[in-house]
Amino acid sequence: MIRAIEVKGIENFNSRKIAAHQKKEDTRTETAEQKEDRLLNEGADKRAVQGALRHAPPDELVKQKKEHKKLIHRLQKMMLAIVDQRNAALDKWALNIAETEGLRKRAFEERRKIAAEERLKQLMEKKPDFKKKSRHLERRKGSRSTSLLLPPMSR
Fold first, then answer.
1. Residue 128: what are its φ and ψ, rounded to 5°?
2. Could you please report the per-residue DSSP string of 20-44?
3. Of 37-46, 78-87, 93-102, 144-153, where does the model show the most confidence?
4. How confident is the model at residue 72 (pLDDT cuts 50, 70, 90)?
5. What SS3 state is found at 154?
6. What is the number of alpha carbons within 13 Å of residue 81 lying toward its C-beta?
7. How far apart are alpha carbons 94 and 21 in whole angstroms?
8. Where are the beta strands (DSSP E) in 78-127?
């Protein structure tokens, strides 16, 4: 249309707004000019439909494309289901790792606690001899307190 205006000039074109798809009641009171506009509009509509039908794709091609669209839709749904399942598996795996790490940490802490209790029990079973100097305990003269001595530092 723009090309036609450029070639022929704008003064050779005229356009008006026309009510399309009028009812029979509306056409009874129309003027001769409105009737001519309506008939021309209806003719243009018919020619547009004919042109569209002429350029319509073959029915077999339309059928193939519909089947192809259904196949693609099913494929995409399947791919989304795979992604959902993979994410669920990764979440479960990460949870198992976290639980395993937590169990390892608790087991380590439990072993440490048991070892400390056993060491404490061993120390409690030994009775310190206050008459001779112990490297762990020393009784100071004139004092009622007992203090812990650190083992000598190795050089």
1. -70, 145
2. -S--HHHHTT--HHHHHHHHHHHHH
3. 78-87
4. very high
5. coil
6. 6
7. 65
8. none
Q: What is the pTM of this model?
A: 0.39
Question: Between vectors from CA 50 to CA 46 and to CA 54, what angle results, nearest 5°?
Answer: 170
Backbone Cα Rg of the chain: 49
Close Cβ partners of 137 (under 8 Å, ≥ 6 residues apart): 128, 130, 146, 147, 148, 149
Residues in CB range of 65: below 8 A, 6 or more apart: none
Of the candidates 147, 154, 113, 151, the one whose C-alpha atom is nearest the C-alpha of residue 135 is 151
What are phi and psi for residue 61, nearest 5 degrees?
Answer: -65, -40
Angle ∠(100,117,98) on CA atoms, nearest 5: 10
> In degrees rounded to 5, what are phi and psi of residue 30?
-80, 155
Give the alpha-carbon dihedral of 81, 83, 84, 88, to 10 degrees.
Answer: 140
Q: How many CA atoms lie within 13 A of 119 on its CB side?
A: 6
111 in helix, strand or coil? Answer: helix
